[in-house]
């Protein structure tokens, strides 16, 4: 995280506000042979975290975590799930049914991402 981003977060967040937001955060783990090999985080309807150990990549762990997160979005409030995907992960999210909506740069281009959505409820 760049010093600029860290400073901006510290200007707008307090320990109390971080605790309050954390109470809305959902974390899922994927276990294999009694070890955690993947993590996924959901903040209301935003995928905020997805990590799979390199040794377990391309084995369905990431897909299983994303499919689980799709079921955890409160559909009475949200019709879609979204993610700011790293450029390297766009194809993975497409294979999970997400649709590219366009590029989005955090930190003046230091962190290029692609905004992607998955429709949970057809309106």
Care to describe what's here?
The chain has helices spanning 3-12, 15-22, 61-72, 90-95, and strands at residues 25-32, 35-43, 46-52, 80-86, 99-106, 111-119. It is of the alpha+beta class. The chain has a single domain, classed as Gcn5-related N-acetyltransferase (GNAT) (Aminopeptidase, 3-Layer(aba) Sandwich). The chain has a six-stranded mixed β-sheet with strand order 1-2-3-4-6-5. β2 and β3 form a beta hairpin. The longest helix is centred in the middle third of the chain and has 12 residues, at 61-72. It starts with a helix and ends with a strand. The mean pLDDT is 88.
How is the topology of this model organized?
Layout: H1 3-12, H2 15-22, E1 25-32, E2 35-43, E3 46-52, H3 61-72, E4 80-86, H4 90-95, E5 99-106, E6 111-119
Parallel strand pairs: 3-4
Antiparallel strand pairs: 1-2, 2-3, 4-6, 5-6
Salient structural properties:
123 residues, alpha+beta, Aminopeptidase
Short description:
The chain has 123 residues and is α+β, with helices and mostly antiparallel strands.
